[in-house]
Amino acid sequence: MYFSAGSEKPQRRIDFWLCISTFALVLFGAIMVYSATFYRYDLLGISKFKAFLKEIIRLIIGIIAFVIARKIDPKNYRKYLKYAMYLIIAVLGILFLVGLKSYGAIRWLKFGLLSFQPSELAKIIIILYLANELYEERSALKNPVKLLRILALPFVTILLIAIQPNYSMALIIAAIIFGMLFFAGVKVIYLVLPVICSLLLLFMLYLAAPEKFSHVENRLKSFASGEKHYQVKQALIAIAEGRIAGKGIGKSTQKYLYLPMAENDFIFAIISEELGFLGALIIILGYTIILLRGFSVSLRHYDANYFYSLTGSGITLMIFVVSVVHIGVNLGLFPPTGQALPLISMGGSSLMINLFALGILEHISEKVEDYESIR
Q: Average pLDDT in the 165-176 region?
C-alpha cells in the first residue's frame, strides 16, 4: 500500500506498510526497554526518567537517520563505497588499540558518554559495497575468480570482527553476503567457494588462538548435549509464564535480575512474558511485513535497477537474519549469541544503523515504478 508523498515527477509514494511496521516496532521497543530496565536502574540508583530520556534521544537520532536515508538516493553513495570499506576496515583495526573492552571482547569505541559499535556500521557498508560491485561487474556472477576478488574486502572485515571476538556477528554478516549472492543469481556451485574460504579462515583463527574459542566451544557443547544455558533457561521460563495474553506490561518477574541482559539479548523473552503469545506474534508479524515488503521491492527492481534490487535484498536479509537469530536464541533453538532484536532491543548503534538501512529501503520502495537507469 502506498500514499502520495508530494507532487514531484515521477511522483514518489510512501510505502505505508513498511513505514508503519518499522515505527510500530521502534516505539514498542522503547516501551519494552523501559519496562525491562526500570528495576535494575532503581537498584543502581539511576534515574528512571534519565534512562528513559536517553532511550528517547536514541530513538530521535534513529528517526533522523531514517529520514535522511529516505531522502538521499543510494546511487549517490556508489562512488564512495570502496573508500567506505577501507575506512571501516581501518576503524575495526584501530578498535584493538583504543576500543572499550567489555565481557572479554573489544567491540566498542567510546566518545565521552557515547559509545558506538563499528561492526553494526560494517553491515550496511558491506551490503551497499557488494550491491555496487556486483552491479558494476555482473560477469562475476559466472566467474569465481572475479567473485572472490569482490569478496576480498568483506572477508577482511569479517575477519577483524571475528577476532574481537564477535563470532556471531561475523557469521551473520557472512550469512547476509551468502543470501545476497544467491539472490543476485550467482551459480550455486560458485557459492561453495566462498563458504570453503570462510571455513578455512575460521579454522586458521582457531589454530592461531584456540583460547578465543573456548566460550564458543562450551556453548556449542552445552547446546549439543541438550543442556540449556542459564540465560536460555530463564528466557524459556519467562516465555512459558507469559502464556497466551501475558502478565501485562511492566509485570515481568524475570527482569528482577533473574534474566541477565533482559533489555538487549533477551528482550523477546520479556515481551513474551508481559504480552504473551499474542504479543510475540504481533512482533513476528511486524518483521514478516518488513521481510515481504523488502523482497517484493527488490524483486520488482531486479531487471530494471539491479543496484537497488541487491541493496534492498541485503537490507531485508540484515533485519530478517538478526531477528531470527535473536528469537531463536530466546526459544532455545540456537546457543546464546548476544545479538539484539532489531528496532526493539536497547542499543543506539543497532537502532541507528537499522533505521538508516530501512530509510534506504523506503527510498527504493518509493521509486519502485521509476525504471530509469541509475547510471
A: 91
Confidence bin at 201 (pLDDT 50/70/90): confident
Question: What is the per-residue burial (b if ≥16 Cβ within 10 Å, else e) of 54-86?
Answer: bbeebbeebbebbeebbeeebbebbeebeebbe
Cα 184 to Cα 180: distance, rounded to the nearest angstrom: 6
| Mean local confidence (pLDDT), 91-111 | 84
Same domain for 315 and 355:
yes
Contact status, residue 69 vs residue 359, Cβ threshold 8 Å: yes
Residue of 164, 195, 168, 167 lying closest to 181 (CA atoms): 195
Please report the pLDDT score of residue 100 as a whole number: 81
Quick one: 163 and 135 in the same domain?
yes
Would you say 339 and 169 are in contact if contact means Cβ atoms under 8 Å apart? Answer: yes
Q: Which three cell numbers stand for residue 133?
A: 560491485
* 3-class SS of residue 296: helix
Residues 213 and 248 in one domain: no
Please give the backbone phi and psi of residue 2, each rounded to the nearest 5 degrees, phi first. -120, 150
Which among 143, 153, 146, 136 has a CA at the least distance from the CA of 189?
143
| 34 within 8 A of 47, measured Cβ to Cβ | no
Alpha-carbon torsion 281, 286, 289, 295, what sign?
Answer: negative
42: which 3 cell numbers? 532503581
Distance separating alpha carbons of residues 133 and 153, to the nearest angstrom? 11
- C-alpha 363/C-alpha 308 separation (Å) is 10
What distance separates the 2 farthest-apart alpha carbons in the chain? 61
- Range of weakest confidence among 78-92, 143-157, 190-204, 260-274: 190-204
- Rounded (10°) CA dihedral 331, 332, 337, 342: -10
Q: To which residue does cell 560491485 refer?
A: 133
Only one residue has cell 578455512, namely 200
Domain assignment of residue 375, given as a range: 1-71+228-375
Whether residues 233 and 221 share a domain: the answer is no
pLDDT in tens, 122-164: 999 999 999 999 999 988 888 888 998 999 999 999 999 988 8
pLDDT class for 297, splitting at 50, 70, 90? Answer: very high
Domain boundary (226, 256, 289) is at 226
pLDDT of residue 212: 64
